[in-house]
């Protein structure tokens, strides 16, 4: 099975998408509504089918994290479902576990550890421990566990400062 290839957009369009992403990052946490608006505009600029472009993954990651920061997890789930369905239906070998980890985190924010567990298991099957190198230790522990204590997972997840992680990631991406 081959690895899926992504294509570059026209330089001017890609620069516009990057600029909107940078503007979105600068708006957090002061104006998270404006950050979401900028991320939405960046997402909307990506032509259909969105999943064929190299910039899609980065833009989706940022948009989902901003949506989650603003407690719009339903929209995050919708976007990530589309991405995951496209990946799984493409016929290519999946080499990036990030959409599955983002989906798991979104489900944890919704207090759905059982669904999160399912996506972390899938992420682990794709990338092993290396897929979790920049993630909280809890995620890898969940992915490798045989049984899940949902209450313990939720308590430990709530102890993580997920919003601080989001802000540091956005700052680092600038």
* Anisotropy-based shape: globular
How far do the termini sit from each other? 35 Å
The overall pLDDT, averaged over residues, is: 92
Helix content: 55-70%
Strands, count: 0
Structure in words:
68% of the residues lie in helices and 0% in strands. It is mostly helical and 174 residues long. The mean pLDDT is 92.
What distinguishing features does this structure have?
0% strand; 174 residues; mainly alpha
In short:
With 174 residues, the protein is mainly α.
Summarize the topology:
Blueprint: H1 11-27, H2 32-45, H3 56-69, H4 73-89, H5 98-109, H6 113-127, H7 137-144, H8 150-159, H9 162-172
Helix pairs in contact: 1-2, 2-3, 3-4, 3-5, 4-5, 5-6, 6-7
